[in-house]
Amino acid sequence: MEKAPIKTGIMGGTFNPIHYGHLLIAENAAEQFGLEEILFIPTGHSPHKSDSQILDPKRRCDMIRLAISDNERFSLSTIEIEADEVNYTYRTVDHLRQQYPGRELHFIMGGDSLKAFHTWRHPEHILQYAHLLVAVRDDVDETERLQYIGELKGQYPRARISCLKTPNYSLSSHRIRALAAQGRTIRYMVPEAVRIYIEENQLYGPT
Predict the structure, then answer these.
(1) d(CA 102, CA 100)
(2) What is the CATH superfamily name and number for domain 7-170?
C-alpha cells in the first residue's frame, strides 16, 4: 500500500516580530487540514517592503525559534533568507517541491491578501502546486471573500482553495513594534521568551 504524502504547511511572512496571531493560525491550519508539519519561512528580500523596514534576518529567526520550540509540528525554514533573489511565493513553492519531493504543500495566507492574489507573480503556478488555505476570522462576513475564491476557481479550475477558520484574535506585528517603541507592554501578545528577547536586545525601542 502506497504511503500517503506528508502534508506540509507553508507559513510565510516577515515575522517582525512573530506573535500569537501567527501561531494560532498555524495551529488551526494543522488541526483543520491534518497538516503534519508547518514551515515558518521568514522573508528575505520582499517584493512588497523595503529591507530597511525589516529587522535583520538573524533576529527574526531567533524569535521564531523561541516561539515554536514547544511545538513538534512547527519548524523554521531559511530558504527565503538564504536566497539572493527577491522572494516571490511561486519561487518558494518550487524550492520546497525540490527540497521535499512528493510532499503535499498547503500555502497559508491571510484573508486580507486574497483580493490582491491575482496580482502576485504567477498565481497559477502557486495554485497548481499548493493548496491555498485562506485564514478567516470567525466574526467576519465571508460573502465577499467567498466571491473572490469563486472567481479564482473560475479562472483556475484545478485550484484547491479552502477557508481556514481562526479565532477572533486581532493583532499585528506593526502594533507590537509601536507599543515596544513607546515602552509599553507587549506581554501576552508574543510568547514570553520572545518578549524577553525583544526587551533584552532593545529591538524596537525602550524597554
Answers:
(1) 6
(2) HUPs (3.40.50.620)
